[in-house]
């Protein structure tokens, strides 16, 4: 494994570059490329901080002469700030300001794809700031829709799927009055369904599974007068996701989906036509899924998720006692 780049290595690289007979534009490009290298494959959080420093140095060198490179430095810096773990709201606010500075220049001088990528990432930053009352979810959704003008399902299926997934999650987390709760949930379900018209199992299995799993979650918790019907639809969506997710290739995604499916089975009568007969068989199936999921989460040290599944299992055992009594 290659050692993590150190501050001294960064300084040495910059010093070497300073003595090069390269033009200022070439030097700025070199700094940006070096920063991108750390940003794409960071070994530690320090690598990301070094990348921010390199982007900032490139930004300072641009002045007013190299506007596109200046905007790229700012967008790169924003993306790196976003990626720093446990950075808190301060780094997210810096990222937001950097994207907002870069975007008008990118819109004038960069390719549509580069602009759309910045809009997509700005949407994510805004979405992350909403819980702290530092951004509005409507602005996040608007940024995603701007990006969708370029990231169409024909040309950019992966980005298209991620954008619709993010839009749906944004709707689900929007605070609304209780009487309009069904509206935002309906918009979320609709967003997943729009994406799934174009993202299919054969060509885009990973994105397909992500959308189906999250559609199942949205259906399962839909405020509705048809809870049984929604749970049946949710289980159908989870089954679609499980055509891709399996314990060997995608263990954590698999555990996530089977625990979600177990939640739906927990609340589903064995015979939807005769709900009064109970759901003993569905509870047995749910127990099997929960136990599998707990084992995988524990194996991969996902302690919080393992604990949530454990609590669900305890509730389930109480349900079995009701059948026995």
Total beta strand runs: 0
Q: Quick one: overall form?
A: elongated
Strand content range: under 5%
Q: Runs with pLDDT <50, length 5+?
A: none
Helix and strand succession? Answer: HHHHHHHHHHHHHH
Structural class: mainly alpha
Helix content range of the residues, please?
over 70%
- For the termini, the CA-CA separation is 59 Å
Organism: Amazonocrinis nigriterrae CENA67
Protein name: Tetratricopeptide repeat protein
What does this 3D model show about the protein?
This protein has helices at residues 7-19, 24-40, 45-62, 67-83, 88-109, 112-129, 137-148, 157-172, 181-196, 205-220, 227-241, 251-266, 280-299, 303-324. It has 325 residues and is mainly alpha-helical. Helix 10 runs antiparallel to helix 11. The radius of gyration is 24 Å and the shape is elongated. The mean pLDDT is 91.
Topology of this structure?
Layout: H1 7-19, H2 24-40, H3 45-62, H4 67-83, H5 88-109, H6 112-129, H7 137-148, H8 157-172, H9 181-196, H10 205-220, H11 227-241, H12 251-266, H13 280-299, H14 303-324
